[in-house]
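Students often ask why inverse folding is considered easier than folding. One informal answer: many sequences map to the same fold, so there is more than one right answer. In these notes we will look at a single instance of the problem. The structure comes first.
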């Protein structure tokens, strides 16, 4: 298994006539933040439920910390999770909620109080822990859920849409919090989200699932190379009208257009960029600036999902 905390190999999960996972495969390395994205109904929540031992796959192999998922007693104490169903007790205070769950997680009594206080401070709820949860804002509830998931100092954290409903400040807090956990505590984090900006900002690798299949997986740079737009943005000393026709006639140029006053040239492939620059030089056209255009994660995601429909 090497350094893989999660190994998900050719996993199949069926619900009656619905194929929720279709030979889905991916691995998650120790200490990384792995983003798992896809449309509603793609299989994200099913994957998390299998990793938590709440569902059994029909086929394939699932290992966590090197143990088969069926050996749940060797795994569950090392996993923290935060699902959309929050499971907080409204009429208990924030502190009482954490105290209750620390008992369920079998946190030793001698360290329980200090652990709860440490987490309350860590998630930014100091001074609010004695208030009842029914009076908490959405952001405070999310922070409390994060604290709850960390009570037993898990090595793996499974998060399903952790920033849903939060304002910009709340989203940033949770992003920074997760990066700190991974970098400074070596916690491995598996996160699903519809916020693609968030995923692109914090995740070391990203898996894209659609219709139960993993259709792409890698770092953002690897995904950008795999889904390269082959476009460059150019600023020159002549208007587009003067160069558009001869540019289009070049054998390695596929398209020329103008966006916000800048010329966008689509190349056969990026290796033809020196040929393009040579053409400008030979025609006494000054190039002030040239930028490669890379697909954003949103571009990549939408192209995959659209293609798969």
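Output (designed amino acids):
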């Amino acid at each position: 298994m090497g350094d893989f905390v999660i190994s998900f190999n050719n996993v199949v999960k069926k619900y009656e006539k619905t194929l929720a996972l279709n030979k889905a495969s991916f691995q998650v390395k120790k200490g990384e933040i792995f983003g798992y994205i896809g449309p509603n109904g793609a299989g994200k929540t099913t994957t998390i439920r299998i990793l938590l031992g709440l569902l059994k796959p029909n086929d394939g192999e699932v290992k966590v910390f090197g143990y088969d998922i069926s050996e749940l007693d060797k795994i569950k104490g090392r996993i923290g999770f935060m699902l959309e169903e929050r499971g907080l007790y409204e009429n208990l205070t924030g502190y009482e909620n954490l105290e209750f769950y620390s008992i369920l997680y079998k946190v030793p009594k001698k360290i329980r109080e200090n652990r709860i206080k440490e987490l309350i401070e860590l998630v930014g709820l100091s001074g609010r822990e004695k208030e009842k949860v029914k009076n908490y804002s959405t952001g405070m509830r999310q922070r409390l859920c994060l604290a709850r998931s960390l009570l037993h100092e898990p090595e793996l954290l499974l998060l399903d849409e952790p920033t849903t409903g939060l304002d910009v400040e709340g989203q940033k807090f949770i992003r920074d919090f997760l990066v700190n956990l991974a970098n400074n505590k070596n916690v491995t984090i598996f996160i699903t989200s519809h916020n693609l900006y968030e995923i692109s900002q914090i995740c070391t690798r990203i898996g894209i699932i659609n219709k139960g299949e993993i259709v792409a997986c890698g770092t953002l740079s690897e995904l950008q190379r795999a889904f390269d737009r082959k476009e460059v943005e150019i600023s020159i000393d002549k208007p587009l009208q003067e160069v558009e026709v001869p540019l289009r006639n070049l054998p390695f140029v596929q398209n020329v257009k103008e966006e916000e006053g800048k010329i966008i040239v689509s190349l056969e492939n990026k290796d033809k960029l020196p040929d393009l620059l040579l053409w400008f030089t030979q025609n006494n056209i000054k190039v002030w600036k040239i930028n490669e255009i890379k697909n954003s994660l949103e571009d990549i995601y939408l192209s995959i999902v659209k293609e798969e429909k």
